[in-house]
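Hi everyone,

Forwarding the result from last night's run.
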Amino acid sequence: MAKKRILSGMRPTGPLHLGHLHGALANWKRMQDEYECFFFIADWHALTTDYEKTGGIAQNIREMMMDWLAVGLSPDKCTMFVQSHIKEHAELYLLLGMLTPVPWLERNPTYKEQIVQLADKDLSTYGFLGYPVLQAADIIMYKADGVPVGIDQVPHVELTREIVRRFNYLYGQVFVEPQSILTETPKILGLDRRKMSKSYQNGISLSDSPETVRKRVGEMITDPQRMRKSDPGDPDICNVFSFHKMYSPAETVDEVNRECRVAGIGCVACKKKMAENLAAFLAPIYENRRDLAENPAVVDEIIAAGDAKARETARATMAQAREAMHI
């Protein structure tokens, strides 16, 4: 039986961090062996909120592709491409925009949330309101059976399904209604106990050297109630301990859990233990990435090959869409 097809993407807005690794890339790496995968760098989507600052996008595209390759995504197993290199995305976005009711976009929960959260930016643009239509075009262009998402992104996929149903009702069966593939992701907080985010600059990047990882771990906030080394701590509310559970051996986790509660280990020593284990976990990614940085032609070739494969599929899809619409 043919593998089912999935599609997902990321916006190139800055360095990828541990949140991206565990929130998406680890799942993608597993899925590339189970599905026919299309993964794209969503540079047009980056413009929806950062249209005033476009200078770093080109470099971010290269950096993102190196991150993907370094964690184990393989061009032999999945198609990796750049959204703006496939102009058919823009054409389908335009056509879908002609038939998508504005109220569908205005009720999008993410639209409402980001208007509030990003109040310092002018988001009263057509592009920001209409980005779910571009997202729908990205997905259905490749007739994806599924889209790996977290629970908060399910409404986006449902909107895509509504757009597909409307198109197919008007013009005939062309597109597939994609399903949401819910992915469980561990909750990873940043160094300051807030959500790990590029905008907060509180993450540990996949491109960080072992020395940088150790330095960043040293800046982590621990149990806020433990003021002195002699004070007993509570690992259950300590972010460093949550990292121990992900990156340290079981015996180390047990030791820290026990000793912290009786002030048998200080926060500095605890961080140092975790930093070594985290640095060891990230070392292969860092080494792979360094090799790629030294061979930029290899990265360019992989992008070009992925673009070519995606373009071939997109052209075939658009030929069907145009025929159905008689244009």
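The mean pLDDT is 94.

Cheers,
N.
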